[in-house]
Amino acid sequence: MSRMFCLLLWQLVLRVSCYVATASLCTAGSNIFASVRENSPAGQFISHISIRSDPRANTVRLCLTGPNANWFYLEGRTIRLNSSASRVLDREVLGPFLIAELTCYEDDIKQSHYRILVEILNENDNKPKFLEGTIQPFIISEVAAVNSVVFTVKAVDSDGDMISYIIDQSSEDAWFFRIDLPNSGKVVLSKPLDYESRTRLQIIMWAQESNTEEKFNISTVLTINIEDVDDQYPHFLPCTPVSPGVPICMNPIYTANITRKHQDSVLEFSPGPIRARDGDRGINAPLMYTILSGDNHDRFVMDNRTGEIRLTRAVDERQPGANFTLIVMVVARDEESGEEASASVDIEVLQRGQAVPHGAFTEQQLFGDVDSRLAGGIAALILLTFLSAFLFLLLRFVRRRRPQEADVLPATTTLQHHKVSSRSPGFMDEALRRQASLRSGSFHGRQGLYIRRQSLPPPTSSSSAADSRSRPQSPSSEVSLSDPAGRCHFQTNLFVVVEKPAGVASGWARSPDVTAGLQVHAGMPQSDEDINIDQSKEDT
Question: Which residue intervals are annotated with compositional bias (Low complexity) in the record (predicted)?
Answer without folding.
Answer: 461-484
